[in-house]
Specification:
Blueprint lengths: L1 H14 L3 E7 L3 E3 L23 E10 L5 E6 L5 H14 L2 H6 L3 E5 L10 H14 L3 E5 L10 H12 L7 H10 L8 E5 L11 H8 L2 E3 L7 E4 L3
Helix pairs in contact: 2-4
Length: 232
């Protein structure tokens, strides 16, 4: 039923000329003299296991399914609800003003992970505030557990991993340069470094969440997998 619902909502979004987005975080990237996929390019003196990570990059991407535009932000703190919503906000801010104004609504496909699930209070709280700020309805659509491979952004991660496989990402600048030099649908992605520090474990009380829940229009058949948020 979840995939049938996704297909139906996709058709609806295309009819309404809504932007169809896919968002997800990739596994944390270790920065340093580490081999990529067991291979290194040029210098073979690379570590094949973790010797104590000093720097890291947390890739979080947003891809426009129709236009093919790819936005990737690298965090350096923790993968949290606030980090994910900040990435979404930054994606919106980089769009031309005319493009933002022309969009009737936003559809967002996302994995049902712990930081962004349909019951994660801080994630939903931040999204409600963002929807009120931009004045556009947001349709949240989730994939079933253990089915993240169907999320369109995963194809972008596959291309990135192939692109920099074997490269030693010795510092932040090298990591960003490799990401910038990949292409998706024939175009380079927009790359941004996020140096903010995020706190883990932020959650709303039941009382505070009650007002947020009143703003969520949950599909009665799929309440955790299909959520509509309208501007106040």
């Amino acid at each position: 039923m979840i995939f049938e619902n996704l297909q139906a909502k996709d058709q609806q979004a295309q009819t309404q000329n809504s932007v169809r987005l896919s968002l997800d975080c990739k596994a944390t990237v270790c920065i340093g003299d580490y081999s990529r996929g067991g291979k290194t390019r040029g210098d073979t003196q690379a570590c094949d296991h973790d010797m104590g990570i000093k720097d890291k990059g947390i890739p979080c991407g947003v891809v426009d399914e129709d236009r093919g535009d790819l936005y990737i932000e690298f965090g350096q703190s923790y993968k949290t609800s606030d980090f994910i919503v900040d990435v979404l906000e930054h994606w919106w801010e980089h769009l031309p003003s005319a493009t933002r104004q022309a969009l009737p609504s936003i559809q967002l496909k996302i994995d049902n992970g712990p930081e962004s699930s349909g019951v994660r209070t801080q994630f939903l709280n931040r999204l409600v505030a963002w929807v009120d700020q931009i004045g556009k309805p947001l349709q949240l659509l989730y994939f079933p557990p253990y089915h993240s491979k169907y999320n369109p952004i995963e194809r972008c991660w596959g291309i990135l991993e192939q692109h920099w496989n074997g490269a030693q990402l010795t510092d932040i600048e090298t990591m960003l340069a490799w990401a910038q030099s990949m292409t998706w649908k024939g175009n380079p992605p927009v790359i941004r470094l996020n140096t903010a520090t995020y706190e883990k474990g932020i959650a709303l009380t039941k009382q505070a969440m009650a007002s947020i829940e009143n703003r969520l229009e949950r599909n009665p058949l799929l309440p955790k997998y299909d959520i509509l948020i309208r501007p106040a």
